[in-house]
Write a structure and sequence with these properties.
The structure holds 2 protein chains of 2 kinds. Chain A is mainly alpha-helical. Chain A has 13 helices and 2 strands, in the order αββαααααααααααα. Classes of the chains: A mainly alpha, B alpha+beta.
Chain lengths: 299, 355
Amino acid sequence: MSAWGWRRWLLIGPPFLWLAVFFLLPLGVVAAISLTQAADAIPPYTPLLTHGPNGLELQASLANYREIANGDLRAYGNSLVFAGVATVLCLLVGYPIAFAIARAPKAWRNPLLFLVILPFWTSLLIRVYAWIAILQPTGLLNRALAALGLINSPILLIYNDFSVVLGLVYGYLPFMILPLYGSLSQLDENLVEAAADLGARPARVFFAVVLPLSVPGIIAGALLVFIPAIGEFVIPDLLGGPGTLMVGKVLWQQFFDNVDWPSAAAIAMVMVAMLTAPLLLAQRFVERPHSSRMGANET
Amino acid sequence: MALLEISGVSKNFGAVSAVDRVSLSVEQGELFALLGPSGCGKTTLLRLIAGFERPDRGRIAIDGGDVTDVPPYRRPVNMMFQSYALFPHLDVVGNVAFGLKQEGMARGRREARVAEMLALVQMSDYARRRPHELSGGQKQRVALARALAKMPKLLLLDEPLAALDRKLREETRLELIGIQERVGTSFVFVTHDQEEALGMASRIAVMDKGRVAQIGSAAEIYERPRSRFVADFVGAVNLFDGVLAAGFNAVALKVPGLEAPIALLAEAELPEGGEAALAVRPEKLRLSPGRPEGIAIAATVEGINYQGGVSVVHLVAASGHALKAQMASAAATSFERGMPVWASWDPADGVVLAR
């Protein structure tokens, strides 16, 4: 190996090592456990390799996956729907905010961004409890509405799909705003002026120039919201009702309540597979603007 | 009626007065230059015409219609930006067609117009390229095609050649003139480069500190500048500051350091005792070893700057004035550093500038 190759490996080696030790290895362990069976032992699963008459024998089984496939898939569907709805709502709420911050006077931008990040200074758990205090039947919101004479009896605002989506949007909104801001603040003001100069009204300027050029920010924000929202446990557990079943909750139940590590590991592997799909899709989208084919059907 | 009529327009940014009571008009088919140093307000004036800025005072009319309160997307003008501002997500065709789409032009006509515009700027072979795949000169052509596609009554160009290298700039200058003649649209362009303004424009407005210092043809601006600023900014000049005094049969300029007052061929009335300056272009300055008749200033050759076909002889007068004389390089070889000479000029070549 040449000196150059040796040095190159020295540079890119550490991050690879980090990935291998702290991501691939644990993922491999989870994958391995997902192929075993629950057992009353320590650790609580059957060994993957056993000593048999022919030496080491592999005891892998896909039983856990079969169980998932034949079982109730609603939790997976729910997770996809909740995460999807939350992502779309985050985009609809976050885009105007990011746009306003990017267009605000320079001196205002950093203080406004600081306000977006401010909630992170408190634990998510505490903030979700605060939402319970706001939303519950005897909570702030119901009391305020009653005091204003708008309602006679408390309305159900919590322990349903509404409160779960509200919690997800609230919790993940900053992850949508920040990449959108990054993308919108880099937009060349001359492009907006050029579009107006060529006869585009403000709405057309937005849809023909601003929106297409902020697509990378939209994709980054959507991934940053969608991926963690799928596996979210705290928000649906605290704000959701008995009917709102999400993968994170099922995984928790299998792991802690049923002490079924192999089944929980299989659920985790299915989740990873579910998340890989949108990532690959997004990568194709992000790469598209660099190819010279896009826009070929203009005019 | 003038195509563009600007009357008494002012624009302030905070406490800074960017454009100050500017009035000017541009006729149909003109190639009009706004010339001035950076910060003189020329770009702000262009943006006021385009509609990106609203004037604090004054009116702007295009083709007889008052557009002062009309937003940019409804003005019959288009602009070529200094940075070109091509849409990075659209290819060349998409960029040129953008304005036509906003008009709602039918697809067939639009395609024909785009093809015509690309042929005009010789970019037909690059129709499917994206802006990042083009060179600076190619981007400039696409930007020009995009701005001309809607056939505006008036095309605004912000430093159209500034981003190009010197050789390309000179070629493009001639091309721009050719395109302007062919399409017949009035061009108003902003430049800080006096060569560019002199070489391209049919008329020039020289701007200084937000105000118009002088408007005229290139020859008028260069030969008959009306202020010290214009004489100094447009081209090289030898300036003599002094006080007006009565001479034998005309007004003369008493310049500190010069033994004799300079007799002036005054066209206008010049107040005796007033401060004035005399401007003489370097190519009008004659050098001779012996003292000639008339106005003559004793000087010493400081150095000779060879510029190819012409050379500039730098002099220091006995009075302390630094002078420049431009002549054919062959003529400059008869001078050398340290040589005493007499500098003189035809009185008709001296321009009196009231201060």
